[in-house]
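Retro notes, structure queue

What went well: the backlog is down to a handful. What didn't: a couple of records were mislabeled last round, so from now on we paste the full input next to the output in the thread. Example, using Ribosomal silencing factor RsfS from Aquimarina algicola:
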Amino acid sequence: MTKKEIGNDQLIAQILKGIEEVKGSDINILDLRDIENTVCNYFIICNGTSNTQVNAIVSSIQKTVSKELKDKPWHVEGSDNAEWVLIDYVHVVVHVFQKHIREFYDIEGLWGDAKTTVIETNY
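Corresponding output:
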């Protein structure tokens, strides 16, 4: 594996850990590497049940990645209303939704050509 892929794998692992610590649900990883003209390599998509939980997931992801990898997002957008928060780590973009907003925008459907990995949770 190249160094960049190892970095992506480590980043994804820490993002998932951050999501799971505050019980984010319906976690999917979309691998966009084989699709032309994409802006990143991976999307990680999950949802929370309320504005409070969405903000908690975002905060947990940022704290976990910062603590373990000494990395911070390039950009964060949507924290004000916390219905759809995007966390941009350049090669990995995290989408944290409230369930009804996720269903409306259907990111997985828009990126249907991507390889999707569903992350099983125990809660």
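Agreed that this is the format going forward. Reviewer comment attached to the example: The chain has a mean pLDDT of 94.
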